[in-house]
Amino acid sequence: MVKRLRKEGYKVGRYFVRKIMHRLRLKVTQRVAYKVTTKRKHTDTVADNLLNMNFNPTAANQVWAGDVSYLKTGEGWMYLAVVMDLYSRRIVGWHIDKRMTVDLVFKALKKAHNLRQPPKGVIFHSDRGSQYTSKDYQKLLGRYGMRASMGDVGACWDNAVVERFFGSLKHDWILKINQPTRAFIKQDVTVYIKYYNLERLHSANGDLSPIEFENSKQNVSDIA
Fold this sequence. Notes:
The chain is an alpha/beta fold. It is 37% helix and 17% strand. It is built from eight helices and five strands; from the N terminus they run H-H-E-E-E-H-E-H-H-E-H-H-H.
């Protein structure tokens, strides 16, 4: 809160902001515990963990991370798959659907690849969910020249950066208002991802948004 206000030109300190929040009865709420959304088939191959929780690559298009989360609406569940470039924390591809299938993560990765056009050798990190361990998905990674990396079962810290994105999406945005329909939440997610990429500050980026950080480095294609 302090960083956001300072960026907008207000000269404030932490004590003053805490005082105002108390006066307005604003409270910081803790996020709910991590829940496993996908399970792999025992016949599928599991890739080695190439990251080992090293979430800070030195350049763009070196390490991407993907995951799936569930979102509740008045019409039932929706499932969101995202692809994040860990260099800037930017969401470079995503897809939302009412079914959690291989096609869900397929489309998210295809959108990311079409946007970035990365060189071969990108590491793609995920959990061991059946969508990511499936033969079809592994073939897609191979077609793009990407190297698969997978965390341990049920270990949210193995993909902590993407989990934090989902936590922010839900608790800072989605859960703030009623989500009556699937179409409504799809539009709301679209608005949030645009805000997240363009405006939301990240301490890992020196308090810049993902796109501001990429623009400051001037080494990523298709910034817009």
